[in-house]
Amino acid sequence: MVRTFVTEKTGKVIVSRLEPGEDILKSIEKIVAENSLQSGHLSLIGAVSKVHLGYFDLEAKVYRDFTINEDLEIVSCVGNISRLEKDYVVHAHVVASDVNGKCYGGHLMEGCEVSVTIEIVITEFPEMKRARDEATGLNLLDL
After folding, report:
1. pLDDT by residue (tens digit) across 96-135?
2. Domains of the chain, start order
3. How far is Cα 104 from Cα 124, in angstroms, rounded to an integer?
C-alpha cells in the first residue's frame, strides 16, 4: 500500500554554509534546533575530507557503516527531517565522488568532515513524525 503525505503549504527556506572541520550531521541538527524546525526536506553539496556512511542490513536488522578518509566531492545529498517523539531525525543519503569519479553512497552518519565548504538548503513543511515499524525495526515516516 502506498502512503502519501500531501501539503500545499511550505514554511521557511534555510540556506546555510558549513566551514572546514565541521561535522555535517551535527551541523544539520544544530541548524534544525536553532530554527525550531519540526520537519522538512534538505539537500546539500560540497567537499569533505572524510565521509562516514551507513547502510541498513535488512537480514541482521542493524546499520553497517564504513569510512573513506580522503578528499571527496559530495555530488548529491538529499533527505528529510522529521520528529520521533521529542527528538529530531535527520534521514539523508549521500553520494560522494573521488578524484577519479568513483562514487561511494549511503546513509549520512556522524563523522562526515567538511574540507572546503558544504552548502545546505532546507525547506520546512508541516510536521511529519516517525513511528516504529515492527517488520523492519526501523523508525519510518508515519504517514
Report:
1. 999 999 999 999 999 999 999 999 999 998 777 777 888 7
2. 17-130 (3.30.1330.80)
3. 28
